[in-house]
């Protein structure tokens, strides 16, 4: 189940983050409409502190209850879901196999040879694969992407969904869900845009992940311990606010006198430095020496004028992620709320799109 869905319909995408559950349900519009997809419903539900720690579920009951509350808030009747494990918990490798093999034969061969690629006992991991396409080394071979994760990472997410009354139809990898969402995000901007090298800075509560896409495919991922939670912590400490109130005031841009200068500006500068540092690691570890654009995703991407500051500091064009630009909305979806949360919903959207593979 890890990684690559077969042809399924009707999935809710559920992103289990360190501070919240993000849920979205999409439907596919008729071919005659301009919008290929429609947002049926979405919800974001806070999680208790330490329910998810370092991308691992620490309190399964709390996460299961959080998913249940998100489902109730969204009002969806769909019972099949897609979730993702973090890239740091997944081993991926591209291997070459004979192009004459059927999918079942490939699966059997991978099971026999997996111990060459996976540094864990095979009974402790979930393995899946996807055929990428013809191999450049030989026309008789195809490149196959192999993905493996410790079984506990997958099982914990499956159990949390089951606790909420859902079936895990797909367990994906966060990087591939982001790639899926970015294909949609950039797809409406022309083939020239898709051929560029795009850096996606996904700023979560505790982790900022840099994904770099070249010609629409992820070629690099790096996680750094920095996130929007540090801004919330500082607002709590400085102004004596409870966490939920501090978060809401940050979103509203109405914290206290002096907040912009004393708290928000230093945070934005620090975030720009983190993105710059991540890009330097990318350049030094690959054959690339530039990116064409930065896309800001994650909850912190909604901070006022953050995109302008990052653009000024790094000298690169910056786009705030909005995967809904070419979608229609169900009448029950509040457009203003959805657009405010759009950058934080990228992974959930990428997961929901797996229902239309």
How do the helices and strands line up, and which of them pair or pack?
Blueprint: E1 12-16, E2 20-28, E3 37-46, E4 52-53, E5 56-57, H1 60-74, E6 80-85, E7 90-98, H2 103-113, E8 125-134, E9 141-150, H3 151-163, E10 167-173, H4 174-187, H5 191-194, E11 197-203, E12 208-214, E13 217-224, H6 229-239, H7 243-252, H8 259-285, E14 293-297, H9 306-314, E15 318-320, E16 328-329, H10 335-341, H11 346-352
Helix pairs in contact: 1-3, 4-11, 6-7, 6-8, 8-9
Summarize the structure.
The chain is 36% helix and 29% strand.
Features of the shown structure:
single chain; 357 residues; alpha/beta; Nucleotidyltransferase, domain 5; 2 domains; 6-stranded mixed β-sheet; 5-stranded mixed β-sheet; 11 helices; 16 strands; 36% helix; globular; disordered N terminus
What does this structure look like?
The chain has 357 residues and is an alpha/beta fold. The protein has 2 domains: 12-188 and 326-356, ATPase, nucleotide binding domain (Nucleotidyltransferase, domain 5, 2-Layer Sandwich); 200-320, Nucleotidyltransferase, domain 5 (2-Layer Sandwich). It contains 11 helices and 16 strands. The chain has a 6-stranded mixed sheet with strand order 10-6-1-2-3-16. The longest helix has 27 residues, at 259-285. The protein is globular, with a radius of gyration of 20 Å. Residues 3-8 have low confidence and may be disordered.
């Amino acid at each position: 189940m890890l990684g690559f869905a077969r042809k399924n319909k009707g999935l809710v995408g559920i992103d289990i983050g360190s501070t919240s559950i993000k849920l979205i349900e999409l439907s596919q519009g008729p071919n005659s409409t301009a919008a290929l997809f429609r947002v049926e419903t979405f919800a974001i539900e806070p999680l208790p502190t330490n329910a998810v720690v370092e991308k691992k579920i620490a309190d399964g009951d709390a996460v299961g209850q959080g998913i249940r509350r998100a489902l109730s808030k969204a009002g969806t009747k769909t019972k099949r879901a897609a979730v993702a494990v973090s890239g740091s918990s997944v081993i991926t490798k591209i291997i070459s196999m004979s192009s004459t093999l059927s999918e079942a034969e490939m699966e059997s061969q991978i099971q026999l040879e997996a111990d060459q690629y996976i540094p864990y006992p095979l009974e402790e991991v979930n393995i899946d694969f996807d055929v990428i396409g013809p191999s450049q080394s030989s026309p008789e071979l195809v490149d196959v992407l192999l993905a493996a994760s410790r079984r506990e990472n997958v099982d914990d997410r499956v159990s949390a969904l089951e606790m909420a009354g859902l079936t895990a139809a797909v367990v994906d990898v966060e990087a591939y869900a982001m790639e899926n969402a970015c294909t949609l995000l950039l797809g409406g901007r022309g083939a020239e845009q898709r051929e560029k090298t795009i850096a996606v800075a996904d700023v979560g509560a505790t982790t900022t992940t840099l994904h770099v896409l070249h010609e629409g495919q992820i070629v690099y991922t790096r996680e750094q311990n920095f996130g929007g939670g540090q801004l919330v912590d500082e607002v709590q400490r400085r102004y004596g606010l409870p966490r939920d109130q501090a978060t809401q005031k940050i979103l509203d841009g109405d914290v206290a006198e002096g907040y912009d200068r004393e708290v928000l500006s230093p945070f934005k500068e620090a975030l720009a430095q983190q993105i710059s540092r991540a890009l330097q690691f990318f350049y030094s570890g690959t054959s690339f020496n530039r990116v064409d654009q930065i896309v800001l995703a994650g909850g912190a991407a909604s901070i006022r004028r953050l995109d302008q500051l990052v653009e000024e500091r790094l000298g690169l064009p910056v786009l705030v992620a909005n995967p809904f630009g070419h979608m229609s909305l169900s009448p029950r979806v509040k457009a203003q709320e959805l657009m405010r949360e759009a950058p934080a919903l990228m992974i959930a959207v990428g997961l929901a799109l797996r229902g239309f593979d």
